[in-house]
User: What shape does this take?
Amino acid sequence: MTPSSLLVGIIVVPLAGAVLTPVIGGKAGKHAWTWATTVMVATSVIAAALVNQVARTGPFSAYLGGWERPYGIELRFDEFSASVAVICLLGLLAIVFSQKYAAKELPPARLGTYYTLLLLNLTGMLGFVVTGDLFNLFVFMEILSLSGYALVAISGERTAEMAAFKYLVMGAVSSLLVLFAIGLLYALTGSLNMADISDRLTGSAEVPAMLALALLTTGFMVKAALFPLHVWLPDAHAIAPSPVSAILSGLVVKTGLLGMIRVYQIYYGAKVLDLSSLNTVLVWLGAISIVMGAFFAIFQEDIKMMLAYSTISNIGYIVMGLGLASQYGIIGATVHIFNHALIKATLFLGAGALIYQTGYRNLSDLRGVGRSMPFTTAAISVGAISIVGMPPTAGFLCKWYIALGAVQAGHPVFGVALVFGALFIFVYYIRMVNSFYFQAPIHPEILEVKEAPLTMLAPVLILAALCLAMGLLGRIPLSFIEPAVTRLLGTLGG
Assistant: This one.
């Protein structure tokens, strides 16, 4: 297949799979899991081919219908777009995990809908990271958002519906801000293509360009759940089915951050505005988010609520790295987007396996579960030390690079926030590990439970192994993303 056909296929295959799921899955969704798994395997093969292509030849584009920019629709693949590999991997593992989990947690009549929504959500994310124009970026953002709202509410429980409604309200505000900004940039430049907008923005449009930047930044930060725009996240991630929580926390919130990277590509290339003030705001908000997310997580008893607040803290690390606008900072932040997805999927799927087997979700109720579910709790422990940032796990190199980025940018004081946040994170994950291994159970029957079924246990163990592998082989993703960051900062002249 040609690079152009691969770019089209990464969107068309999961989208067609989602459309056909209700038909192939049958009324009770009997074959929906098999079909969804097959679709994601095929999509993962395409993603691997795309990443291999960009590693060999650098960024490339496809123009639909043969019309080049600014008139045609451009699909663009660069090193930042390599997140498609993580999206496909986590999507596939979440679907595999869902076989037993969804069958137990959801009514049979909703199984087909569940897998349809999962494929639509993954389609939206894949389209979001490969599109080259702002309008289609908005369209794909809406696909992943609308399917996300429905997935949170899929159980039909009152608490799930309320969490989904809160998510929807905040998501609608975000979408309006982004859409208004896109309209403003189109009015200024007459184009929707991101590279073309960057070329056409001029100094005479400084004020409206600044307004568009502010709207895009705010809209994407709502999607990313940066503190204090995080209010939708804890309930949505804690109440959703665990495979959905893994996708929301590991992937969906990252679209806001990838959106910010695209915004930087536009504005750094245009050289219309001095972004130092914006970067200062983002660094401070990132530092506050690190500390506040970790602070709230300390007081959570519900294991999934703890993991949800932990996401807010780690979004802060990534935003801080981007805001530092130094090579080390942006490299660390970008790789942490990928690595945090693996880590958080490990934790949420592991927590889902515990809840599935024991029926409990509070730490006090899960005391001693490490004795009866040693593999699951070991995987969660690996995820825990990864999220803290201890070597040699996936979380260490990313946070180390962000700290180096703070020094490189001339702001070493922000390295203090990294250390302070890591200490907070260490405290609440120690609580979790202590509960699993070192406290006597208050429910004697918890010692009788067994490990989760293989379709649930295997994804958790694979992800835990990747948390270690990405730490031991951490130089590979760091060196892979470095050329893209060099190009981005090169547009600033340094």
Remarks:
- Residues 50 and 56 are 10 Å apart (CA to CA).
- The mean pLDDT is 87.
- The radius of gyration is 21 Å.
- DSSP finds 19 helices and two strands in the chain.
